[in-house]
Amino acid sequence: MIRTVGLHKAFGPKTVLAGVDLAVGQGESLCVIGQSGTGKSILLKCILGLVAPDGGQVFWQDRPLDAATRPDFFRRFGMLFQGGALFDSLTVWQNVGFRLRQRMPDARARALAIEKLARVGLGPETADLMPAELSGGMAKRVGLARAIADDPEVIFFDEPTTGLDPIRARRINDLIRGIVTETGATAITITHDMDSVRAIGDRVALLQDGHIAWDGPVAGMDRAAPLAGFLGRS
Amino acid sequence: MTPIRLVGRIVLRIIGAVGAVTLFVGRGLFRLHPFHGRALAGQLVQIGWLSLPVVGLTALFTGAALALQIHSGGARFQASDVVPAIVAIGMVRELGPVLGGLMVAARVASSIAAEIGTMKVTEQIDALVTLSTDPMRWLVTPRLWAAVLTVPVLVAAGDIIGIMGGWLVGTRSLGFGSAAYLANSAAYLESWDVLSGLIKGAAFGLIVAASGCWWGMRSGRGAEGVGRATKSAVVAAAVGILAANFVLTGLFFE
Ligand SMILES: Nc1ncnc2c1ncn2[C@@H]1O[C@H](COP(=O)(O)OP(=O)(O)OP(=O)(O)O)[C@@H](O)[C@H]1O
Ligand SMILES: [Mg+2]
């Protein structure tokens, strides 16, 4: 469904992506792991065109994902950014209902937004807070609610559980798994958390030195030598 | 590198930059669909209404000081009775728009650049794009129009307050009668004096908002990047206002 071919990105002399080939099928949940600073977030941004790649191509449903096809893609897309990326000038519910407000009255968008907040474990009392009043973990969950608010077909999660306590992290993993299986959405999740990978991934890919160093089913990752470091048996 | 090459490269750079900024402003001003009315309303308050105290105080003190200056300077050639007319013309044609514009530059260019720059470094601009919202239309267009529409109003308010500043000084300490002062202020003022100042105000508003948005959108990474963007925006806006003032004054009055 989404496929990258030879994605390349360098910042000055520093090559971050050196030819990344990655594919994720319809309804599949792919986890991308890799050390901090290897370019996982940049990979997502290159796929989305938020950062212009120096080389390579991205395909969506076998068509190039470019300026012409991106508006259509974004309408079916949701993303949780690594830092939440909530709009400071809008309240929590206005953030969550950002897309909904473009096509329905505020009262309905607000009701739906509160529903989505409940799914990520936040009560209706958070709806009227400003992002600056939230803790880091809360902001992350609001970002998650915003990503799933309009029932997207494709979802990217950039480190959904980083900065959450283990109990919340497990709940978020369950939530993501639930969304992906219920709606049949296609998901790419970046994570450092192997429990997350086990909980939500069908497949896992390791990004290392600008390449995909290993790519296979989650069930097989315990026997994969390149993943040893991540699994804590170095 | 030979000097000619260096000059050529610098000239090309400048032409490129001017082209890029022009394109940016053109897009920001004229790509109006979909139009974000709520965002415009917020910016009208932020840029216009909340700048009124600063611009008003600036005008008040400037008008008052101008009256004192012209009174003492004019005494050298027995012209101190034209104080009201010269204060009015000076405020309306030059000092109202320029000082008002500079104060708005300090207040607004910096805050626009800091706000948009922060949005850039915290991925909020990226988030807008993924939510099918064009950052130009959502962030830049409302700010440009709000500044173009409100700065002339601020200038008009500044003109009146500045003349009143002169009137205060004139009647309290220079011995003018209240009615005579006001009559003399109005007597020599032509409508083009006022109108030209308001047009300058619109141009300065555009310069302020455009440099805030431009530098904010180009902010580098981290707090340092935002700080640098803010500084550049204020400097560019202030220099831009003074340069544009020279050009416009030449166009209007030569
Ligand atoms: N705009 C930029 N300019 C220069 N270098 C950049 C830029 N954006 C990212 N980088 C560099 O690219 C590399 C990859 O960044 P990226 O954010 O993708 O890392 P990551 O794999 O997501 O790490 P983490 O797990 O810590 O989030 C980093 O070394 C970073 O310094
Ligand atoms: Mg990252």
What does the model show?
The complex is a heterodimer of chains A (234) and B (254). By secondary structure, chain A is an alpha/beta fold. Chain A has helices at 40-48, 70-75, 92-96, 106-119, 136-148, 166-183, 194-200; strands at 2-11, 14-24, 29-33, 55-60, 63-64, 77-80, 154-158, 186-190, 203-208, 211-217. The mean pLDDT of chain A is 90. By secondary structure, chain B is mainly alpha-helical. Chain B contains 9 helices and no strands. Chain B has helices at 3-30, 37-48, 52-74, 83-121, 124-130, 135-173, 178-187, 191-217, 222-253. Chain A binds chain B through residues 45, 48, 50, 71, 74-75, 77-79, 81-83, 85-89, 98-99, 102, 146, and chain B through 42, 118-119, 122-124, 126-133. Bound molecules: adenosine-5'-triphosphate and magnesium ion (MG). Adenosine-5'-triphosphate binds next to helix 1 of chain A. Adenosine-5'-triphosphate binds at residues 11, 16, 34, 36-42, 82 of chain A.
Task: Characterize this entry briefly.
The complex is a heterodimer of chains A (234) and B (254). Chain A has helices spanning 40-48, 70-75, 92-96, 106-119, 136-148, 166-183, 194-200; strands at residues 2-11, 14-24, 29-33, 55-60, 63-64, 77-80, 154-158, 186-190, 203-208, 211-217.
